[in-house]
Design a protein that fits this description.
With 305 residues, this protein is α/β, with parallel strands linked by helices. It contains seven helices and six strands, in the order ααββαααββαββα. Helix 4 packs parallel to helix 7 and helix 5 crosses helix 7.
Length: 305
């Protein structure tokens, strides 16, 4: 019996060791105490040297693109609406007539969903072809936004906001290092050895992705342009687009190349039509980026420090 217990103990220790080894794959929680923060010393802040990935989900281009978008969205209405209408009909029938009423309500709801959805499938291609903007118009707006994105210098601007926020909110001693960040998305720099001996830690920031994204399908749609009738808004031929940004931050101790913290933050704001984003030299586009910088910088500083 004693031998069995000793073996069982060895197995338990081995299991604990293995669990500990797996746990090493997870970075430790960010420093939070004033003593640990002080041990970081002066922190050098670097930004990525490459352009972040850009993903724009644009409106349909031209009558052919509009027809295709209308057909796809019309099918989506059928697929989404039919089960919703069936469930709603079953619920209403159950409240009125019990189990028998639920069956009848579900049937009527399904018929309603199929009929309405089929109508969108038929109307969608024609509506899309008739209302889609020309390819030249869409491409001009896209070029305006991408040009504004280049002029913003997103990587450096995000870095500057983090330094400003860290100095004001977290009372963190930070110094900007120019030209030290990763040059490609695949670079994982250790910053060891570092030329400047006064810096004991590096905060590496990289804006990994920015996007304009079409919102997920809703019935009825809850955010469309007032100029678009609600009855056809769900076809999303020219839908509102949400501006989003994703930022990765790594805190590295230069003495031993240890990664103290590694995390990704995302922010997606309000939705506007493509024409609204591009209007007035992309003014709204730039304003939304400023809000994103502030929100993400606050999140990073409070999380890490």
């Amino acid at each position: 019996m004693g031998c069995f217990l000793r073996r069982l103990g060895r197995i338990g220790l081995s299991a604990t060791f293995l669990v500990g080894q797996w746990g090493c794959a997870t970075y430790p929680p960010p420093p939070s105490s004033a003593q640990l923060r002080a041990s970081l010393g002066k922190i050098g802040v670097v930004s990525a040297q490459y352009t972040p990935a850009v993903e724009f989900e644009l409106p349909a281009k031209g009558w052919l693109g509009g027809a295709g978008r209308g057909a796809v969205r019309g099918t989506g209405v059928l697929i989404t609406l039919t089960p919703q209408a069936t469930l709603m009909g079953a619920g209403g029938g159950l409240m009125v007539g019990g189990p028998g009423g639920a069956i009848g309500g579900a049937f009527l709801g399904a018929v309603f969903g199929v009929v309405v959805g089929a109508g969108y499938m038929i109307v969608g291609p024609f509506y899309g072809a008739a209302t889609a903007e020309s390819p030249a118009s869409i491409e001009e707006k896209e070029a305006q936004l991408k040009g504004a994105l280049v002029a913003m210098r997103v990587q450096e601007t995000m870095r500057d906001h983090v330094v400003k926020t860290g100095q004001s909110l977290g009372n963190v001693d930070m110094r900007i290092l120019e030209g030290q960040g990763p040059e490609t998305a695949s670079d994982l720099l250790t910053y060891f050895p570092l030329d400047t001996s006064q810096l004991s830690s590096i905060l590496e920031l990289r804006v990994t992705k920015v996007w304009l994204r079409i919102g997920s399908f809703k019935w009825p749609d809850q955010r469309e342009s007032p100029s678009v009738p609600q009855s056809v808004a769900v076809l999303k031929i020219n839908p509102p687009l949400s501006l989003g940004m994703e930022v990765r931050g790594r805190l590295i101790r230069t003495a031993d190349k240890a990664v103290l913290y590694d995390n990704t933050w995302k922010r997606e704001g309000e939705a506007h039509l493509l024409a609204e984003w591009a209007a007035n030299d992309a003014q709204l586009f730039g304003e939304e980026f400023e809000r994103a910088y502030d929100v993400l910088a606050g999140q990073m500083v409070t999380t890490i420090f």
